[in-house]
Write a structure and sequence with these properties.
There is one protein chain. With 705 residues, the chain is mainly beta. It has an 8-stranded parallel barrel. Strands 1, 15, 16, 17, 21 and 22 form a 6-stranded antiparallel β-sheet that branches. A hairpin with a 4-residue loop joins strand 21 and strand 22.
Length: 705
């Protein structure tokens, strides 16, 4: 969630248009005789505005006025949401309306003469911003970063009042109109202020970094990258400038360096400068195996004064990828099975107001399970998530919140296109992102939905022709809504919302046979599970009922993964969901307000059995896990012991009595017909994995029924 300037983001100011741009001639600097290290200059100032806020839930007349008395309001820091509690308690009656935030701001006096920009990393879903009663603007859309210029409104050295009105009320002009999660309101990500020189990279290019790294060609021998810098001169007179582009390796050693010829940029005007750099024998970003990243820095230099007025550093992970209808996804020319999870921005207690530590913990769990891919559903996530994916080597599907329905209006179309443009501009340089998702589960295959999706697919091609557009479909294989993106994925809940979990493979085979040239993935599959509910080899429970035994979720995922792993033509599969999450309208599994399909509980405290099933299959880390371990109180003496492990053989002991050793080719080890004695029963399993002994233990207590 953090927007800290760890990459020294330099930002931009374009009204729209593709990332393509003209190339300005330049001169390549001579290759250094010996390796040279480089430390990027840091001429811009970043200030956190997370603390010192006052908040009121509800609308208040005149709260934007600087003299307004907010002393009775609640003191808090952002990130904050007003739906952390009522958005996850069931009933579908959580508060959707207006909330006000106010705080005092004093810009340091030494920043006089700088351009000032307020940045909001995310506020759901419409935000109006004032400084000292002057309206800076309104942002629509609850998931993307946005900025407002504040130079004319903030005087360095003088206190001002910043007021923000946020509403998460339903709005027919803004996606999403509906979805199976709680639309939590508030300023739920970071707020900050940037001070930059008047000759700088653009700040208002849909809040993008203003520097865009297009990888033209990447092979083992060389990589060619177009470095596009969008520059704006906010001075009252023209300037002569030089743009320098520098690529360094992870140790800070320069591997490519190029400067443009000096050129003039007029007062109050912009200029795009594209420079092509080549990196010899690149170390490629190679997924989990080697998520190596270079850095690319753009310096804006005042050619007359000889000073660096601005600089931005962006991640550069050099890689190539493709899809094949027979073999699926390839990274750097080699097949990579994309198996992973869907991720929502939500957790117990905090709701959407997650901290950096929260995001880091989430990705630690995703790494632990061995996922090679993450679908960041159903909207743009915080930059922290994409940064973590870059560093972990996890391939990302990023998407916009076009979920369930559309409004057939020019306003809705423009708003949705704007959210897609913001998603692409703000995340263009992340090496982890391979897919741009243009929507999820449109409820109708009508003309309005298809017209909108066609425009979104075209927008992806215009903004970023090098990545793959995709769509998550639930209307059938031949639905028109599935025809616009470069590839299609399907949300299929065999064994949960009908059918059998053994139907998955047959469905995939049928689609592949009927359309052998189509590339497709499984964007969602799964089942609910309450870790306090248990049954031995249960049949399918009612998806909307109160009983969601943990064991059924495991059976469904066992069957699903076995079918998926045998079908490499399915280019990706994404479990729904990594974590239980808030969906206030639900009431099932004896957990009102919660979608319980996660592999981990909403508080991140408990990894469900199915988590270890995937870990045993996906991760090379030693795994030995007794399932049904939370079924501690038993009334039936006859049971089974089931273990997930990536060992070759596992030995089990019950109450000191050997149950024998089992071998398995599918990571499941089972001892059936086991009889428990009254009272406490201790099950111990042992295995040697990669030459190291491992042990796991569970205790079950048998009581009279």
């Amino acid at each position: 969630m953090n927007e800290l300037p760890s990459r020294r983001q330099v930002l931009g100011t374009v009204a729209g248009g593709a990332l393509a741009a003209f190339t300005v001639g330049g001169t390549a600097e001579a290759a250094p005789a010996a390796p040279q290290t480089y430390t990027p200059p840091a001429p811009r100032t970043w200030l956190s505005l997370n603390s010192g806020w006052r908040f009121h839930k509800g609308d208040v007349t005149g709260a934007q006025a600087p003299a307004f008395n907010d002393s009775a309001w609640t003191a808090l820091s952002v990130p904050h949401t007003w739906n952390a509690q009522d958005g996850a308690d069931g009933g579908g009656d959580y508060y959707r309306g207006v909330g006000w935030y106010r705080r005092r701001v004093t810009v340091p006096a030494n920043l006089a003469g700088k351009m000032l920009f307020l940045q909001f990393a995310g506020a759901n879903q419409v935000a109006d911003v004032w400084i000292d009663g002057a309206h800076l603007g309104q942002h629509q859309g609850g998931y993307s970063r946005f900025r407002f210029g504040a130079t004319a409104n903030l005087t360095p050295g003088r206190e001002s009042v910043l007021a923000v009105k946020v509403t998460n009320a339903a709005n027919p002009d803004i996606a999403p109109l509906s979805a199976d999660y709680t639309f939590q309101g508030g300023i739920y990500r970071n707020v900050s202020l940037y001070a930059v020189d008047r000759l700088a990279v653009r700040m208002l290019d849909y809040a993008g970094p203003g520097v865009y790294l297009r990888q033209r060609s990447v092979t083992a021998d060389s990589a060619t990258v177009d470095v596009r810098a969008t520059v704006f001169n906010n001075n009252t007179a023209g300037r002569s400038l030089v743009v320098r582009a520098v690529v360094t390796d992870a140790d800070g050693t320069i591997v490519a360096d190029r400067s443009s010829a000096a050129q003039t940029i007029g007062a109050g005007s912009g200029l795009d400068v594209v420079q092509t750099l080549t990196i010899d024998r690149p170390r490629r970003w190679n997924g989990l195996a080697d998520p190596y990243q270079y850095s690319a820095t753009v310096e804006i230099r005042d050619a007359t004064a000889g000073t660096v007025t601005d600089a931005v550093t962006e991640p550069l992970g050099l890689r190539s990828f493709s899809l094949d209808p027979a073999t699926g996804f390839s990274l750097n020319g080699k097949h990579l099975g994309l198996h992973g999870v869907n991720l929502h921005q939500d957790r117990a207690g905090a709701g959407w107001a997650e901290s950096d530590a929260d995001h880091t913990q989430d990705f630690a769990l995703i790494s632990e399970i061995g996922a090679t891919a993450v679908r960041m559903a159903h909207y743009q996530h915080d930059q922290k998530d994409y940064n973590l994916a870059d560093a972990a080597g996890v391939v990302v599907w990023a998407e916009i919140p076009l979920v369930n329905g559309t409004t057939n209006s020019a306003a809705f179309t423009a708003s949705t296109q704007n959210q897609l443009r913001e998603l692409i501009r703000q995340n263009y340089n992340h090496p982890s992102i391979a897919f741009w998702g243009i929507g999820n589960e449109q409820g109708s295959d009508n003309t309005a939905a298809n017209t909108l999706l066609a425009s979104l697919a075209a927008l992806v091609r215009s903004e970023d022709p090098d990545r793959i557009s995709t769509y998550a479909n639930n209307l059938g294989n031949d639905a028109g809504v599935a025809s616009h993106a470069d590839t299609t994925a399907y949300n299929k809940y065999f064994g949960w919302y009908g059918g059998s979990y053994n139907d998955l493979g047959g469905w995939a085979d049928s689609l592949h046979k009927a359309e052998p040239d189509r590339t497709f993935a499984l964007s969602e599959y799964g089942a609910g599970a309450n870790t306090a509910q248990h049954a031995l080899n249960p049949s399918a429970p009612s998806s909307g009922g109160s009983f969601h035994p943990e064991e059924y979720q495991s059976l469904l995922h066992e069957a699903s993964w076995k079918q998926l792993s045998a079908r490499p033509f399915v280019w990706g599969s994404f479990v729904w969901n990594m974590f239980d999450f808030a969906s206030d309208g639900r009431n099932e599994g004896s957990q009102p307000g919660i979608n319980d399909k996660g592999l981990v509980t909403r508080d991140r405290a408990t990894r469900k059995d199915a988590f270890y099933w995937y870990k045993a299959n996906w991760s090379p880390a030693p795994t030995l896990w007794i399932t049904s371990r939370r079924w501690t109180s038993r009334t039936d003496a006859t049971t089974e012991v089931k273990v997930y492990s990536n060992a070759t053989d596992v030995t089990a002991v019950l109450n000191g009595t050997p149950l024998g050793t089992r071998s398995s080719s599918d990571r499941i080890f089972t001892w059936t017909g086991v009889t428990l004695r009254p009272g406490a029963n201790t099950v111990t399993v042992t295995a040697s994995i990669a030459g190291t002994p491992h042990t796991d233990t569970a205790t079950w207590t048998l009581t009279a029924p």
